[in-house]
Predict the structure of 11-beta-hydroxysteroid dehydrogenase type 2.
Amino acid sequence: MMDDYNLPFWIYLAVVTVFVGGAMKKVLASHLSAGPTLVAWLGATVLVERLWAFCLPAMLLLVLLALMAFVYSRSRTGPPPSLPAQGKAVFITGCDTGFGNAAAKHLDSLGFDVFATVLNLTGDGARELQRRCSSRLTLLQVDITQPQQVQQALLDTKAKLGLQGLWGLVNNAGVCANLGDAELTLMSNFRSCMEVNFFGTVSVTKTFLPLVRQARGRIVTISSPAGDQPFPCLAAYGASKAALNLFTNTLRHELDPWGVQVSTILPSSYKTAPSSNHTYWEQQHKQLLQSLPPALLEDYGEDYVTETKTLFQSFAEHANPDFSPVVDSIVQALLSPQPQARYYAGPGLSLTYFIHSYFPFSISDRYLKRMFLKKTLMPRALRKQSGLEVDLGLDNRNNNEEKLQQL
Ligand SMILES: *[C@@H]1O[C@H](CO)[C@@H](O)[C@H](O)[C@H]1NC(C)=O
Ligand SMILES: *[C@@H]1O[C@H](CO)[C@@H](O)[C@H](O)[C@H]1NC(C)=O
């Protein structure tokens, strides 16, 4: 008797696993655009369940499943359709290094007319772009926190575009000025993150939007999972990216009637400058130690601050040097007939977002602490306290009371 429904049971389990797994994957891949697909998946799961209840012969069910798997895999394979890049102009900020530099080169090789902004026109990044790219690429010097420079870039871009609109605006420029516990982060660091990542991006977007609307084009913004989740030591950077996420999410539905599509790219950790620049972090560290109020430094301890810096340096050293997942997402957001609202670029993000979305804070906080910076030291003042508690534990009760009164 057991053998009779052993095989069907396993098939059933496999089918349900595939369907539930598929639905889960869709949710993780896109929080916002998963609605209709999710309903379809749930419907299909219920359907399979019903078929099962009618006791289909196992053979027939197998054939049905094979057919479905075939149709599913056919609909999945093959390159996704994409629009041509030729004749499309793209403006991308922050191309001195990192994602911006890599994306400018790739977009140029695909045939886009690229307008790439850099901070330093005579720097290594700019020279490399000039050397490696076609004559279609235009370099512009723009500090996105300077409104006159952004305006000048608009005039230069318009002069070159003529009557043509701008197909793509890629908001890539961003900074992570420093990192550390929020209490140990200088106000100037909070401000500089906001100034570049948020106000700078808003200013560029507002300035170039008329050209993008004219082309019924795309806006692609590089943000960070740190704008969605409370990574330890990234309060300044994360808060600026959270503001940016809300801004782009609002733009997404406001610009829908204009035919402008808006995507956000969320990269995992990559080896971008200056995050991998050892000298830069040493300087920031020294400056921080000099700027912190002595009482605060006393409470946390210099060793605590130093550990954070060392942990981050080693984290940055082991980050991914291959930017292609991010660059590919930018291309998809620019050329897919139906771009996604969000692209998760890089391994490990699905798990992080899954835990963040579905688990209680006690678990998701611990997970973020373990996967990012695994601190071993407590702040000095807390170490002292727990040291005292140990001492107290060894003494007898009367002594304890005396000591507590001294405290
Ligand atoms: C730009 O880069 C060049 C060459 O690396 C360097 O000499 C110059 O100081 C840089 N300028 C600025 C403003 O950083
Ligand atoms: C690293 O940072 C220092 C200090 O900010 C800077 O002078 C240097 O040019 C940077 N090096 C690289 C390779 O970017």
Observations:
- Residues 392-407 have pLDDT under 50 and may be disordered.
- The longest strand covers residues 261-267.
